[in-house]
Design brief:
The protein has 206 residues and is α+β, with helices and mostly antiparallel strands. The chain folds into two domains: 141 residues, no CATH class; 58 residues, no CATH class. It contains four helices and eleven strands. The strands form four sheets. Strands 1, 5, 6 and 7 form a four-stranded antiparallel beta sheet that branches. The protein has a three-stranded antiparallel beta sheet with strand order 2-4-3. The protein has a two-stranded antiparallel sheet with strand order 8-9. Helix 1 runs antiparallel to helix 2, helix 2 crosses helix 3 and helix 2 crosses helix 4.
Length: 206
């Protein structure tokens, strides 16, 4: 399947790196201590007569340390979501990546894509793009990227998302507006690149 990519990043590396580290720390602290106090609960139950006064403390401590564990897991999932969507955005041709397209390219349900995009943009994980959630259809609009290059990519899915394989061929980077010679419709496409009219399917060139 043919497409184009560019060297623009759509995920904030400092933001995701810091969040990833914090996520791992919370998971370690929460998971380790939860496990310790859970074993304490079992010990209190098996020796109830001697340790019944400690049972309440063990239960409270287990619940308390489950909180950072859950928070850490959620933060990690959000970082992985951001990194999953970036390749799908970088291989877009017209600069408007719909929720449906992101769903198809990543294998994630559309409702999940919408929820994750809301969180990612609210928390500032995404850069060089704008999420137009109230548009029809809802989409991510990419801002002008850097130099682009033509690529081909497989449709196979890996553990961390789609697997892409680039081929040679440099093209334009910025998006331009062109009118289709067949139907006159207005289209947005990367400068110097060829594509299809989103209305009638005729060939257009930026």
């Amino acid at each position: 399947m043919a497409g184009i990519s560019n060297n623009t990043h759509y995920v904030s590396a400092p933001r995701t790196f810091g969040t990833s580290l914090l996520s791992k720390l919370l998971i370690f602290i929460g998971g380790f201590n939860s496990a310790i106090f859970f074993l304490g609960i079992i010990l209190c139950i098996t020796n109830y007569n001697d340790m019944r006064d400690s049972l309440g403390i063990a239960v409270f401590s287990t619940v308390l340390f489950l909180i950072p564990l859950v928070i850490g897991i959620r933060m990690g999932r959000l970082v992985r979501a951001a990194r999953r969507y970036e390749p799908a955005m970088r291989f877009d041709e017209d600069g408007m990546v719909t929720v449906e397209e992101l769903s198809g390219r990543t294998g994630v349900a559309q409702e999940t894509v919408r929820k994750e995009l809301d969180q990612l943009f609210q928390k500032g994980y995404m850069i060089n793009c704008v999420y137009e959630r109230n548009a029809s259809p809802p989409h991510v609009r990419l801002l002008d990227p850097g130099p682009a290059f033509r690529v081909s990519f497989s449709a196979s899915m890996g553990e961390d998302g789609p697997k892409f394989q680039a081929s040679a061929g440099v093209g334009g980077g910025s998006f331009v507006t062109v009118h289709c010679s067949s139907c006159g419709a207005e289209n947005r496409i990367r400068a110097g690149m060829s594509g299809k009219c989103s209305y009638c399917g005729s060939q257009i060139k930026g």
